Each structure stands twice: as structure tokens, then as C-alpha cells.
Amino acid sequence: MADSIPTPEPSPLAAYSSAAATSSAAAVALCHQLAGCRFPWDITRSLELALLKTFCLPSISGLLQRTGEFEQRPRKRYDDTGLMVAELLRCGPDSERGRAVIARMNRIHGAYAIGGRDYLYVLSSFVCEPIRWLARYGWRPLNPQEEQAIFHFWRLVGERMGIPAIPQTLAELVAFNQAYEAEAFASAASNRRVADATLAMLLSDWPAPLRPLLRRVLTSLLSGPEAACLGWPQPPSLLQGSVLLALRCRSRLAGLWQRLRPPIDSRFYSQRPTPSYGASFQLEQLGPPAMLPRLNRARWSGQQRRIGLTGGIASGKSRAGDWLERQAGLPLLDADLYARQALAPGSAAAAAVLERYGQGLLSSSPEAAGIDRAALGRIVFHDIDERRWLEQLIHPLVRQRFDAELARLRQAPLVVLMIPLLFETGLESLCSEVWLVDCEPEQQLARLMARDGCGEADAKARIQAQWPIERKRPLTDLLIDNRSDLQALESQLRQALAARGISGHRAQ
Fold first, then answer.
1. Tens of pLDDT along 270-316?
2. The domain containing residue 380 runs over which residues?
3. What gap in Å lies between CA 334 and CA 12, rounded to an integer?
């Protein structure tokens, strides 16, 4: 398992990289054969090991621990991952089924702040681990043509997922995989918690008396440094040698059986019953339970692409929206602007507010004629009934304005809808995808107090009037991390646009 992958050397089969066989269709077809017919057991085991090794990254294990999915529902999380990977291998990433799987994966992953290099490492492990496993344990190693096919297949998947900076060659991807493991693998409490939960799940189907021995067998597949990162004891050399011999014997028998009786049907993980779903499953069942309502909710499906930009108050969404409009040149519809315009002097909504709260709510500042919004905020953010009354007055007017603006921009290829209360008002149906600008609660509070010049109590009341950010994160398609500076925020926005093939469009 710890063996490195040698850099592929030129051979007659290396012509594969320049011949028609390097086409996406050929790579997909060959990977289908490898995973479904020639090495179904070995490739499934190698991908399980790839999953286990990702827990050596504290950035990944820490995120998984925060979601609770691997500790609370390890079987469902394992089955969901296995089913989606198997469907990609069975059907291909550019099939209708494959596109649906990738879209679901992107919507699930987009709810978390996952670094681009972590994404790339996981992708690289799906290439490197099958090659390593079959070289070490298989009834034969993969030949260069098959290695290249696996590389091209997962590179194609990575491109469809929008993962940036994927290496152009297998050798470069292998080099990244090895360098990132040397750089980022480290011991952490979250590593062991997530790995222990996963291992317990894998052993749960076996009789209890056998589990301690099987645990030692499974952990022996890791190198000493990898086991240390997970907080597991150093695997004994004798045990590792015995496991190696046993797996090679098993592979030799499997290879002999294949030569005697070549497989006719494919044997993908998604074609077998699973503990989570039984004999069959639906794609709509896959994903964290808390996300399922959002994942399965109907979104805007017209030709125009619509990005819903949201976030908590003072999270930085206006800064993000301003960059998308001014720097990327995208049409921006601003719910806050429409709400202010709805209360313009002389409007019916302004008259209703003054009738309810009195003329004392008028601003005394010549520069801000009309309703004193700060004074109105002090009323509604401390009284839920008053806030609901104001929302029932303003929200329909904002929705009418959105409908009018979207009709005006109906020829625009892409529109950004900046809506602070996107989830609270149920306006997700206007959007084809949702981006959430996120930050720490302490940052949000400090930014709001500095921006509006309000005290801590008022700032907390305004924050608490919205859904908590923890409730919004699982409902989003992309998380924009605004915990750092403006440069980091803009870099994330550029990457998000590039990953989606968006170069920017001017309003029509």
C-alpha cells in the first residue's frame, strides 16, 4: 500500500496517449471493463483504501467530523459514496446518469468549504490507489494502457466537477499525490474518530469474535506513517507479509477462474443490494438526510442560468455581489435595493409604515429623506410580530420587482440574484444554483457593529432575526469562505466562475 508508483515509461502501448484510444469514450469504456468485469473486487477494495487514506488529512477528517455523517451514519455515507462512484464507472460521466450523479455530488460538496487541493488529492487517490493495489495484490498489474485509461477517466470526472488545476499527465498527477501526502498527512484527533467509525462499520457485518483479527488485517494494509496519522498502532511486519501473501493467493485464484470462465455480466457495487437501500436505490435518496429536501427541491430549470447569492447579514455577500457585477460584468439583482426602493418617499408601502408607527419615524437628515431605516430596524428586529408585519408588506413588492427585472433580462445568459433572506422567503425556486457567503459568527458580529455603528445587543438581534448560518450551509450549492481578506474572497469567486465555465456577460 505504501509502495510508490513509478513514473510510466515509454512503451508500444504508450502510443495510446496519442492515438484514438485516448478519447474520452475509449477511456470510459476501458474503465467500465476494469471496474465491472476484470477487477471488480480489487478496484472496490482499492477505492475503500483510498477513502481511508483521505482521513489522514486533518482538513478532510475535521470537516467530516463536523458534519457528523461518518460517525452518526457511516453505513449510509459509505453506501452513498460507493453507489455514486460505481454509477460513474458503470455509465460514464457524460451519460445522462453520469451527469446527474456529478450534479448531485457538486451540490452536496458545495455546501462545505473544501479546499481545491483537497479535492484534487481525493481525485488523484482514485487514480493512484487502484494502480498501487493491483501492482501489489492483484492477479496481474495494470498495463500502461489501462493506467492511462484510469487517469483519463478520472480527469474527465474532475473536469466535469469543476476541480481546478488538474495535471495534464498521469506522471504529474502521481507526483502531486505523493507530494501532497508528504506535505499534508498529519496526526489529529478527528482522523482517528472518523477512521474508527468507518472501520467499525466495515466490520459490522462479520461475527463479533472475528472482528479484532479482521481489524488488524485491515489496518495492516496501511504503512506505518499512515497508521500513525490515524492514531492506530504500527502494523506488525509479519502480519503485513501474511496479508500480502493471502491477497496474492486470492488474486491468483481469481485470475485463474477468469481465464477458465471469463465474466459475462458486469458486477458494479451499484448493481448489488446495499444495507442502506436494499435491492435498489434512487439517486434522490443519496446525500446527508438534512440536505435531502434541498437536494430534491425543484429549482429554476430554464435556459437562463441564475445564481442565488446569499449569506448572513454582514457576511460579505454585498462585497461578493459588487465584484460579480463590476469585475465579472454579470447582471445583478439586489433584493436589499428593491426593499429600500419599496419604502421610497410617497410610496404606498412608506405610507403604510408611517400610518402604523407614526410620523416620528421620518428621518431628520436632509440627505436621507423618508423613513428612518435605522429606527425602523430597532422596532422590527426586537419584535417578531412587527417584523412579520413588515415582511408581509415588503416581500411581495420585492418579488414583483424580481419578476419584472428577470423579464427584462430574459435574453441574458446568466443573472445573479442577491437575496439575503433567500431561504427564509422561499425564493430558491428562482435560482438554478445557490452560493452562500460564509464567515465566523464573531466576524459577522464585529463587521455588523462596525458597518452600522450599532451596539452589540442590536447587532445580535439583527443576526438572530435570520436563519442561523448552520441551517443555510447544507442548503447551498457552493460555499464562499469570507473569513479572510478581500483578495481571498475575489480569488474564490474567480475560481467558482472558471470552474463553471463562466467568463462574464454584460447585461442585455
1. 988 999 999 999 999 999 888 888 788 778 889 999 999 999 999 99
2. 343-397
3. 59
Q: How far apart are CA 14 and CA 65, in angstroms?
A: 42
Give the CA count within 13 Å in the CB-facing half-sphere of 361: 20
**Whole-structure pTM value:** 0.65
Burial class of 430 by CB neighbour count within 10 A (0 to 12, 13 to 18, 19+): buried
Do both 84 and 171 map to the same domain?
yes
Alpha carbon distance 155, 80 (integer Å)? 21
Three-state helix/strand/coil letters over 250-287: HHHHHHHHHHHCCCCCCCCHHHCCECCCECCCCHHHCC
DSSP state of 95: S
The position carrying cell 488523484 is 124
Does residue 94 lie within any of the structural domains? yes
Looking at the fold, whether 220 and 88 belong to one and the same domain comes out as: yes
pLDDT at 352 over 90: yes
Query: Residue 334: exposed, middle, or buried by beta-carbon count in 10 A (0-12, 13-18, 19+)?
Result: buried
For the CA atoms of 112, 118, 124, 129, what is the dihedral angle to 10 degrees? -90
Report DSSP state, residue 502.
Answer: -
The total number of structural domains that make up the chain: 3
